[in-house]
Design brief:
It is built from three helices and twelve strands. With 217 residues, the protein is mainly beta. Among the domains are: 91 residues, Elongation Factor Tu (Ef-tu), domain 3 (Beta Barrel); 59 residues, SH3 type barrels, CATH 2.30.30.240. It has a six-stranded antiparallel barrel with strand order 1-2-5-4-3-6. Strands 10-9-8-7-12-11 form a six-stranded mixed β-sheet, with no helix packed on it.
């Protein structure tokens, strides 16, 4: 007898900001925004889940937004029950998450849900190098775990390395630096090491007739 399929989740969570610094004495906190639509995400009454250490008094709790203001182009949030600087400082470095209906498409540029990325085929120069298996969210950047034939590779989810994401095609294209997906070739010098046909600093050139090489730009 066939087993009944497990119900698929209808909601996920989106990371939309990180609390960075207390502002003033009345509980306001500066925010680093991870959303292109703060006017939609940060509305009065919006409730955020908190990503904080398990030792934090805020672990497992939520924050309700009273108001988002901008001071000298910096977003500053005022939250319910955060009314003094001491309380605000206890929330510094907390990452804010909101619930998102999976049936609702994101209207933000270069924004994807985790479930959309997991399972994508990773391409490099048109060749398959692995599959996305996990996304981890950190204050500085997100990291993709890519399963390859030689093991897992952690890929920073930044534009300089992940050049394109095509959900419909099921692919994610990377332009990684040398060494991220493979070791240096045996005959290829590592950065800072002289090639076999170039003398190291301080060693005489075997051929004094060679013209001096100009430093690379």
């Amino acid at each position: 007898m066939a087993q009944p399929s497990k119900p698929q989740p209808s909601h996920t969570q989106l990371r939309v900001g990180r609390l960075t610094k207390a502002h003033g004495l009345k509980g306001a906190i500066k925010i680093e925004l991870y959303t292109d639509a703060p006017e939609r995400r940060f509305v009065p009454g919006a409730v955020f889940s908190l990503q904080v250490p398990t030792t934090s008094p805020w672990h497992g709790k939520t924050l309700e937004l009273n108001e988002l203001k901008f001071y000298n182009s910096h977003p500053v949030a005022f939250f319910k029950n955060v009314s003094d600087r001491t309380t605000a400082e206890s929330l510094i470095k907390a990452i804010l998450w909101i619930d998102q209906d999976l049936a609702e498409a994101s209207d933000e540029e270069d924004a994807w849900f985790d479930h959309q990325l997991v399972g994508l085929t990773v391409l490099r120069d048109g060749t398959t190098v692995g599959t996305v298996t996990q996304i981890d969210h950190f204050p500085a950047q997100d990291l993709l775990t890519v399963a390859t034939s030689t093991g897992d590779v952690l890929v920073p989810f930044v534009k300089a390395i992940v050049s394109s994401v095509d959900i419909k095609a099921g692919t994610l294209t990377v332009t990684p630096p040398l060494g991220l997906f493979e070791e240096l070739a045996d005959d290829e010098p590592a950065d800072g090491e002289p090639a076999d046909d170039e003398p190291a600093d301080g060693e005489p050139d075997d051929d004094p007739t060679d013209e001096e090489r100009s430093p690379s730009e």
